[in-house]
Design goal:
single chain, alpha/beta, two-stranded antiparallel ribbon, 5 helices, about 20% strand, globular
Length: about 180
């Protein structure tokens, strides 16, 4: 039952995402990252895990490029059924990934998830209880259980919903930030 609810919710959000222009997504994303940059959890963090965004996600590229020389920026790479962590060293050290065709860092592996201070997490939807609906593979849920990092879910305003269906393996965020 919950799986069916999640599947339907993913379909509905996908339709909403398709109605937003790339330019609007970038503007909304800038608002989200300005909010993050004001947080004490961000200011005091040394190691930040974020993601290299796909077209339908909150746009992260500018944020990663802005901060990678001041903080250790970790990007995930999908390897089979898990996320492998790599240190971002620059745009020239990215290659097209095998799993989703998105750019992935080729740099040094990062094997200490316990050393991550802050994780910025994408999601299909979030609710007011900081529950997250992902893409359905539990990549982030598995990884987030290995770290004590402060977890910030980020999304566009239309991805904030009343209630996200939750399974026992789903990991809650500490904070959810949208462009509103």
């Amino acid at each position: 039952m919950i799986d069916q609810e999640k599947k339907e919710l993913r379909r509905q959000i996908k339709e909403l995402k398709q109605k937003v222009s790339t330019e609007d997504k970038k503007i909304k994303s800038l608002i989200i990252f300005r909010k993050i940059e004001k947080l004490n959890e961000f200011k005091t963090s040394k190691t930040v895990m974020v993601y290299w965004s796909m077209d339908d996600e909150v746009y992260t590229h500018d944020f990663v490029l802005k901060w990678h020389k001041e903080k250790v920026i970790i990007l995930p790479v999908v390897k089979e059924d898990e996320l492998e962590l790599r240190i971002f060293t620059g745009k020239d050290n990215m290659a097209t990934g095998q799993s989703f065709g998105i750019s992935e860092p080729k740099g040094e592996k990062f094997n200490k998830p316990e050393d991550i201070d802050l994780v910025i997490v994408p999601g299909i939807a979030f609710d007011s209880n900081n529950n997250r609906l992902g893409r359905g593979k539990a990549y982030y849920d598995k990884l987030l259980k290995k770290t004590k990092a402060y977890k910030i879910g980020i999304c566009f305003d239309f991805q904030l919903i009343e209630s996200v269906p939750v399974d026992e393996h789903d990991v809650k965020m500490d904070l959810v930030i949208s462009n509103k």
